[in-house]
């Protein structure tokens, strides 16, 4: 089947997952018949008392004007900018600059994401350990891991910008670091929706993910403006005028020039820096008053105003 099999297999797996979700998914642990009583009690106790029979109206204005929500949206968008820049452009960089044939070195192109998967199993229990042992407050943990997940890759990208054309091994190490450490954001902004408003976390994820996916469209377009794509004649033997041939030569030169790629890494690093800085300054991890419109949760001292890594409010455990 060749390369189209990648899309067929991915689509088939998605369809199988959808069928499984349709038959086994439930609105809450109480409605799922296959859950053990101990597991159900553990999950429900972590969320506190909930009334699933009561209809909760989405407070759109409060959500869209909330400073922590805006900071969360910015962090999510900036993360996607860098993540999709690497995801879409890394094969081209490895082939044109590092001169690695990704068809013969498939492991190299998948290695960063393998490391990302492995590190997610390291960061997750570490975050729980720090919070449960009260070494860090919840908001401190969120901001710490978000900083690891965005600013460490930022440093790796800045280092990658200065790797010479012959330093392929160092470049691969930095690429792997930039993508792999990014998994720390799963314990940062990625779970912050539930921290802020458990009742509206799904809606909030939809909002931030929508904004972030716009960045995944814009980022490759910006890269395309910085790095000119090589022009192919599709295997044809048409004669080209000298101007066209010179433009093709220039495009190929730009695509293989590390200096041109340096600009791409600068932009991604700057976006990472801005996104995490915004999250550190304005991000919170306490339940917001608009989580329960009919019976608002009493306002507490903001985590953000207690300092960059302030303490949790007393009602969170």
Index terms:
Growth Hormone, Chain: A; MFS; mainly alpha; 317 residues; transmembrane helix; disordered C terminus; membrane; MFS_Na/Anion_cotransporter
Structural write-up:
The termini are far apart. This protein is globular. Helix content is 63%, strand content 0%. With 317 residues, the protein is mainly alpha-helical. Residues 229-254 and 295-317 have low confidence and may be disordered. It has a domain at 58-217 and 258-290: Up-down Bundle (Growth Hormone, Chain: A). InterPro entries: MFS, MFS_Na/Anion_cotransporter, MFS_trans_sf.
Topology (elements, then pairings):
Blueprint: H1 4-24, H2 37-47, H3 60-64, H4 67-96, H5 106-132, H6 138-160, H7 168-180, H8 192-196, H9 201-226, H10 242-256, H11 258-282
Main location: membrane
Subcellular location: Membrane
GO cellular component, one term: membrane
Specify Rg, calculated over alpha carbons.
23 Å
The residue-averaged pLDDT reads: 81
The CATH superfamily of one domain is identified as: MFS general substrate transporter like domains
Number-wise, the strands total 0
CATH topology descriptor of one domain? Growth Hormone, Chain: A
Query: What is the level-2 CATH architecture name of one domain?
Result: Up-down Bundle
Instruction: Calculate the terminal CA-CA distance, rounded to whole Å.
Output: 53 Å
Give the structural class: mainly alpha
Number of alpha- plus pi-helical segments? 11
Q: Which percent range describes the beta-strand content?
A: under 5%
**What does the overall shape look like?**
globular
The residue ranges in which pLDDT falls below 50 over 5 or more consecutive positions are 229-254, 295-317
Organism: Anopheles maculatus
Protein name: Major facilitator superfamily (MFS) profile domain-containing protein
Keywords: Membrane, Symport, Transmembrane, Transmembrane helix, Transport
Membrane topology: Multi-pass membrane protein
